[in-house]
Design a protein that fits this description.
Layout lengths: L2 E2 H11 L9 H6 L3 E3 L5 E3 L12 H10 L1 H5 L7 H15 L5 H16 L8 E5 L5 H9 L5 E5 L1 H14 L4 E4 L3 H9 L3 E7 L11 E7 L7 H13 L6 E7 L16 E7 L5 E3 L6 E3 L2 H4 L1 E7 L18
Parallel strand pairs: 4-5, 4-8, 5-7, 6-7, 8-9
Antiparallel strand pairs: 1-6, 2-3, 9-13, 10-13, 11-12
Helix pairs in contact: 1-8, 5-6, 5-7, 5-8, 6-7
Length: 320
């Protein structure tokens, strides 16, 4: 029987330290460096980003002030202000500070909405490797008519679902572990969020994926698993599948080595400027990452629904 809500989350919590084939060497080490509890708190050294609590009005104000340069990068997108408001509402419901990680996700949503219609019923939105359920929560807020699938390693997936429950306590969550459970969850109108463990990611080929998003987690996967996700996105039953990919150019796997296709129709392609800036309390307060070693590249477009092939950045096809 399909696991739902607290039962699904408890199952993931209990399985969090079990072996997983889809873990890269990077994650095999880091997954054991932290633990989570059922309140969504992290103990130890996590590489999942951060979700600090919003402890004071002064702290919230200071973060908002420091985010000004990054916020201006979204001015060219029609829905950037609306997406930021949605992000702030979600953060408040989760008891989180609207920090730079959350702002980056809000800017990402604004960029996607500039090119892709998500309002009204449609195919499902897939988030591969979400952190704290941030992108999944933004999709639920911006596009409540569409289901969201979250695919992640077991322990981070548990954390994703815990934070989504904080923001959307009335939303039904299901965990799909086989084809029948996924099909049942997709056909059940009461289920809005479906979790899929990374080792079961092959199931995603059964889902009509209209939009998929991966933000700085494919860079930590072995290239073979990255290729499997691309195959799923190209071969799933949706007529069109858009993909937003935002990752370091060079890490465990390299952005240029991902199996892009010469006929992918690309809307955005280049350095992700809001991922190249960060702030702290050390002068000059705003800092730029080393572009040669730590450049983050992002790309949004419709994937060619055929087998993949290698290509360079210059070969990308622009949409009509």
């Amino acid at each position: 029987m399909i696991k739902k809500d607290d039962i699904a989350i408890r199952y993931l919590f209990d399985q969090g330290d079990e072996e997983e084939e889809s873990r890269s060497v990077y994650w095999e080490y880091h997954i054991r460096e932290f633990s989570i509890d059922m309140d969504g708190l992290i103990h130890g050294n996590s590489t999942l980003g951060s979700a600090p609590k919003a402890r004071s009005a002064l702290r919230r104000f200071m973060h908002r002030l420091m985010q000004t340069p990054m916020r201006r990068l979204g001015d060219k997108y029609q829905f950037s202000a609306e997406c930021e408001k949605q992000g702030r509402r979600i953060a408040a419901r989760q008891g989180r500070l609207f920090n730079l990680d959350f702002l980056r996700h809000s800017l990402t949503l604004a960029m996607i909405l500039q090119h892709i219609e998500l309002k009204g019923p449609g195919d499902v939105n897939l988030v591969i490797g979400d952190g704290f359920g941030t992108m999944g929560s933004l999709f639920l807020e911006a596009s409540p008519e569409r289901k969201v699938i979250l695919a992640n390693l077991t322990k981070p997936l548990c954390l994703d679902l815990l934070y989504i429950r904080k923001a959307f306590p009335d939303v039904t969550i299901a965990l799909a572990s086989n084809k029948k459970e996924l099909v049942d969850a997709l056909s059940d109108n009461n289920i809005k969020v479906i979790g899929v463990q990374a080792d079961n990611s092959g199931l995603l080929a059964e889902a009509p994926i209209g939009l998929a998003v991966n933000i700085v987690s494919m860079q930590e996967m072995d290239l073979s698993f990255v290729s499997q996700y691309f195959d799923i996105l190209r071969q799933n039953p949706a007529a069109k599948t858009a993909f937003y990919c935002c990752n370091r150019r060079f890490k465990i796997s390299n952005f240029e080595e991902y199996p892009w296709h010469t006929d992918d129709a690309i809307f955005e392609n280049g350095v992700c400027e809001w991922s190249q800036i960060y702030y702290d309390l050390k002068a000059p307060f705003w800092h730029h990452r080393n572009r040669d070693k730590k450049v983050v590249w992002h790309r949004l477009g419709y994937l060619n629904k055929e087998p993949s092939s290698d290509l360079s950045h210059e070969q990308l096809k622009k949409p009509e």
